[in-house]
Structures are given as structure tokens and as C-alpha cells.
Write a structure and sequence with these properties.
The chain is of the alpha/beta class. Helices cover 43% and strands 16% of the residues. The strands form two sheets. Strands 3-2-1-4-5-6-7 form a seven-stranded parallel sheet, with helices on both faces. A six-stranded parallel sheet has the order 10-9-8-11-12-13, with helices on both faces. Helix 8 packs across helix 12. The two termini are 19 Å apart. The relative contact order is 0.12.
């Protein structure tokens, strides 16, 4: 197919899951022969990372009413000079600037991607400004449809994970002075209240009472929840059994040291960390919120439990903790799903995105 000229816009200055998705998508689409550029704020981490990767990034301040007017004018010029086929926006702030400019320049296709599962306030950045919408899970898609976005104008495109290189031997157990036969339940997540760290502690604590080799490891940071979690662990006198590792850049190395993965999140648009865990051959335990149920196969690659249900979470953990054969079977099924079926690969993301852009451009031209 002909090469498309695509520009992404993002107002966020931090670098989290949303920005990581944009970064991986731009790489994957470039690999398929398309031309990619971005519009980001000057001091955004995404700006630096994309430039380091060889992408053209247009720096634009987006905060405040003055910058709104300046921004619309600036993006209008960027779009006219770049002759882009597609503008893909990602946050409310960049959408109201870039999509408005794209309307003024008659950009053929304006797409808004919704990354979050929380409630949408104003719908105009989904219904009025863009021509089409993509979401990171069917859960988010159905929510937007329930709020008034036309069903035929919104599609799901799962966020990808970059498959990790094989890890010969994890350093996790050595770092924590754990034995090879200790059972390690691992959780990787930014420390926010909605991620359910305390719920996981409450669910596993009863199992620790008569399983001296059982440990829980948290990877991730975030104030004030990190400090609150540390204090709660001390309050329950579980410092020797629950370990806080903070932010790490070697997550595949740590995953390779776990026996199973658990995250008791209370709110999640998708939950690609479950996919990352399965890529490492781990069975997973997750809560049935947002798009989590779309990230693994309940009863096959992991166990899905209701949110805020301590008894169900404890039971799911116990099943996997006490049954090494079940852990092995689910772990292998998860690894096969991620590696062989490639459901969450960057290549699949690019293929799906390319097909949608092409279809929607054709519809727009008609």
C-alpha cells in the first residue's frame, strides 16, 4: 500500500504507558514504510526519546489560553507544510489544539486515541473534533459508545509489548537473599491507590501464616503510596516476607525471578503488564475491571477475580501457590499466546492501525 504521512500529538510531559504506546506505535508504523512525525511539548520526555530515535518532533507549548491560540496557528502551519494524511491525537489538551487546526486545514483523517478507563467529562474531543476514535480495549470502546460515540466510528487497537530478550538467570533472588525453592508472587505497577497494593497484601497475608517460603515482591514507585505501603507492611510485621524494590529498568530480569504474577488493580483501561508477565512464562492473577479480562485467558493463562473481593483473591493465589503443575501449565499457555499468536506485538498493532487508517481514509474520501 502507499506510504502514509502521519503525525501524532501528545500534551503530556511525563513518560508512562500512554507515551510508551505512542513511542512503540511510531516505531512499528515507520518499520512498515510510513512517514511519522510528532507534536509534543518542549520539555516532554517523549520529545527527547522520539528525537533520539530519529523522528522529527515539533515542540509546542500547550498550557493556557494564550498557548491555545498560538498552538492552533502553529499546528495549522505544521499540517499544511507536512501534507499529512493522518493526525492522531492522544490527550484532551493536544486534541483541542491539534484537531481544531486539522479541521481548519482539512486534514483528510483526524483520529483520537483514548488510553484511559476513567469517566470522560466533555465528549466534544471524541465526537466533534476527530473523524474517528481508537481505544486500547473493548471495555473503553463500549464505554465511549455508551456515552454517544457512534459505534462505526470507534475501533479497538491493543497496546503492544516489546518482547523481552531471554533471561538466563534472574538476579532477583540473589538481591533479596531468597532460595530457589522460595515461592515468589510478583507485582509490577506504579504505586497509585487504584492499583490495589494493599488489597494484595491483605489477600496474601493469611497464606503467609503457614507457608514460610512464600514471598511477595512489589516493583514500582509513586508517592505517597510507596511510603504508605511500606508503613502498612511494617504495621503487619511482614517486612521479611514482602519486599519493595522501587522503580527498576530491568523488569524482564525481575519477572524471570517470579513464580507467578498478581495485580489487584481497581481501575485499568487495558493492563499490558499482564501481557508482559505472560511473555515471561508466568501465570497471572488479575481483577475483572476495565480491559483486564482482554489481556489474558481466564482459566487458561491465569485466574480472573472480582475486584475488592479478598476471599476470591486469596483463593486464586492459593491455587497457584500450592500447585506447581498448574503454574507451569498456565505459564506455558500464556507464553504461547504472547510469543506464537503475537496478539500484542508491535507488528500486529501496526497492521491493525494501517488497516484502520486506510479504511477510514477511503470512507472519508467517499
Amino acid at each position: 500500500m502507499p506510504s502514509l504521512r502521519i503525525v501524532h500529538s501528545e500534551a503530556a510531559t511525563s513518560f508512562g504507558g500512554q507515551e510508551g504506546r505512542i513511542f512503540k506505535e511510531m516505531h512499528a508504523m515507520r518499520a512498515r514504510g510510513h512517514h511519522l512525525e510528532a507534536i509534543c511539548q518542549p520539555h516532554a520526555q517523549l520529545t527527547e526519546r522520539l528525537r533520539d530515535a530519529g523522528f522529527t518532533v515539533h515542540a509546542l507549548s500547550m498550557k493556557g489560553p494564550v498557548n491555545y491560540l498560538k498552538g492552533v496557528a502553529a499546528v495549522r502551519n505544521i499540517l499544511k507544510e507536512g501534507r499529512f494524511d493522518v493526525l492522531n491525537t492522544h490527550s484532551r489538551r493536544d486534541t483541542v489544539i491539534a484537531a481544531a487546526a486539522a479541521r481548519l486545514t482539512s486534514t483528510p483523517l483526524i483520529v483520537r486515541t483514548r488510553h484511559l478507563s476513567n469517566k470522560v467529562g466533555s465528549l466534544w474531543s471524541y465526537t466533534i473534533l476527530p473523524h474517528r476514535v481508537t481505544t486500547v480495549s473493548n471495555h473503553v470502546r463500549e464505554y465511549l459508545i455508551s456515552r454517544g460515540v457512534a459505534r462505526n466510528k470507534v475501533a479497538t487497537v491493543y497496546s503492544p509489548i516489546v518482547l523481552p530478550a531471554p533471561v538466563e538467570r534472574s538476579t532477583l533472588r540473589e538481591e533479596l537473599s531468597l532460595a530457589d525453592d522460595d515461592i515468589v508472587v510478583g507485582c509490577v505497577a506504579v504505586m497509585r491507590a487504584t492499583k490495589g497494593h494493599r488489597d494484595l497484601i491483605n489477600a496474601i497475608a493469611p497464606l503467609m501464616a503457614n507457608r514460610p517460603k512464600l514471598h511477595l515482591v512489589f516493583v514500582g514507585a509513586g508517592s505517597p503510596v510507596f511510603e504508605q505501603t511500606k508503613a502498612y507492611i511494617a504495621e503487619r510485621r511482614l517486612q521479611d516476607r514482602i519486599h519493595l524494590m522501587g522503580t527498576r529498568r530491568d523488569v524482564p530480569n525481575l519477572l524471570a525471578g517470579f513464580d507467578l504474577f498478581a495485580l489487584a488493580t481497581q481501575q485499568e483501561a487495558s493492563g499490558t503488564v499482564y501481557v508482559e508477565a505472560q511473555a515471561s512464562g508466568l501465570p497471572v492473577v488479575g481483577t475483572n475491571v476495565g480491559g483486564v479480562s482482554e489481556m489474558f485467558r481466564n482459566g487458561v493463562t491465569g485466574i480472573l477475580v472480582p475486584p475488592k473481593d479478598q476471599a476470591a483473591l486469596t483463593e486464586a493465589l492459593q491455587r497457584l501457590i500450592d500447585d506447581p503443575a498448574l503454574r507451569q501449565r498456565m505459564g506455558e499457555a500464556g507464553r504461547k499466546m504472547v510469543w506464537e499468536e503475537a496478539v500484542f506485538s508491535p507488528a500486529r498493532l501496526a497492521e491493525t492501525t494501517e488497516a484502520l487508517y486506510t479504511k477510514w481514509l477511503a470512507e472519508r474520501r467517499r
